[in-house]
Write a structure and sequence with these properties.
Number of domains: 2
Strand order of the largest sheet: 4-3-2-1-11-12
Number of strands: 16
CATH topology of the largest domain: Purple Acid Phosphatase, chain A, domain 2
Largest sheet: 6 strands, mixed
Structural class: alpha/beta
């Protein structure tokens, strides 16, 4: 038996840092990943797809987003089982209970809207643990495991949430206890546990049967999400009484969120950064966060600003992380001697330079004014 494990589609997700039309393209890419995984399921001969929570970004999506998402599921052309997660729980405002969803939900889609067993076919069951609120008061999965018999039926648990070995916080009642999962596996009542919540692909424990699939399209920077953009094709050998499992990752994501850490202390470092950014492929589907440290002259800072502005126009987004970056900007000796100005204007420049070199509260404004002056001078304005 073969199926596809995926999770955390978060359809309708927005990312505030994306440039203009990049946000609609990013939203479309998340829906396109759904269609793509349908093709993977067909190619692999998978019987169905399980989505282990957070199908939607939240329960208050625009009607168009819901309709387009359902159309993507229809286009996938394979049975899909959706588990409500912490982003889209089965509460009073649930998207799954809306008139729009229920009227347009395609025939190949089933919502796992109650905790317990769903028969896929004789001898094969899904064991679902949907979220019914954003704040569960207990382990959302443990309750559906307790009474499962080891009777030879192939069972796939579909759950969502953090596992206690990754978040060992006894004050969080919603944590999934790994011991309960491994006990169900070891006694033969459960043969695979499909989890959602972590956006990177990850095996949990040592059984080889408990996995996070990760999100099929990236949602955060690569220093936070180390391995996103996959779905898992899972084989369970039903002919063998031990039901051995094989898990294969398939890449579906096309976007990248990259963090670049660089030291910039002179014009050569800025040129190197320019070359590095220029070599990125698929800039329209790439987001870059720059973490920069160093000490620059005002001239070099102006060159850095020009570099960042140029590539911000080319990438889906590019920005300097101001919280993590630390760049000291100090005017160099003689840096403003060749502006061709005199009198009152020259005195004003000297005053700005002195302020920029100080530790006063106006230093940053002075540095910005000097950088603007240099840019204007380069354009023949000053």
């Amino acid at each position: 038996m073969r199926f596809v494990h995926t999770a955390d589609w978060q359809l309708g997700m927005t990312r505030y840092f994306l440039n203009g039309e990049a946000q609609p393209r990013y939203s479309a890419a998340r829906r396109e990943a759904v269609v793509t995984l349908g093709g993977i399921a067909a190619e692999a001969g998978a019987e169905f797809v399980v989505v282990a929570g957070d199908v939607f970004e939240h329960n208050q999506l625009a009607p168009r987003e819901v309709s387009l998402s359902l159309e993507a599921m229809r286009a996938a052309g394979v049975p899909i089982y959706l588990l409500p997660g912490n982003h889209d729980p089965l509460d009073a405002s649930s998207v799954y209970r809306s008139a729009l969803f229920t009227s347009e939900c395609p025939a190949n889609v089933t919502v796992l809207d109650r905790a317990g067993v769903y028969e896929v076919r004789p001898g094969l069951e899904l064991v679902a643990a949907p979220w019914t609120s954003k704040h569960p008061t207990s382990d959302p999965v443990a309750g559906v495991l307790a009474d499962l018999p080891a009777d030879g039926t192939t069972r796939i648990v579909v759950g969502h949430g953090g596992v206690d070995i990754f978040v060992p916080d006894p004050e969080r009642p919603s944590l999934i206890r790994l011991a309960a999962l491994e006990d169900a596996v070891e006694r033969g009542a459960v043969h695979y546990v499909a989890l959602g919540d972590k956006h990177s692909r990850m095996q949990v424990g040592s059984t080889g049967r408990i996995w996070y699939s990760g999100s099929p399209e990236v949602t955060n920077y690569d220093d936070i999400e180390t391995d996103p953009g996959h779905v898992l094709v899972v084989d369970v050998d039903e002919a063998d009484p031990a039901h051995p499992v094989r898990v294969e990752a398939r890449k579906v994501g096309r976007w990248r969120f990259v963090t670049l850490e660089r030291a910039v202390d002179n014009s050569r470092d800025i040129t190197d950064l320019d070359i590095n950014l220029d070599q990125f492929p698929d800039k329209e589907r790439t987001v870059v966060r720059l973490v920069l440290t160093g000490s620059l002259t005002v001239t070099d800072q102006a060159a850095l600003d020009e570099c960042v502005a140029k590539y911000d126009r080319r990438f889906a987004a590019l920005r300097i992380d101001e919280k993590l970056s630390e760049i000291a900007v100090l005017p160099a000796d003689g840096e403003f001697d060749d502006l061709g100005i005199g009198g009152f204007a020259a005195a004003a420049v000297d005053e700005l330079v002195a302020t920029a070199r100080s530790d006063g509260e106006d230093a940053d404004d002075a540095r910005a004014a000097l950088a603007l002056l240099l840019r204007l001078a380069d354009r023949g304005v000053a």
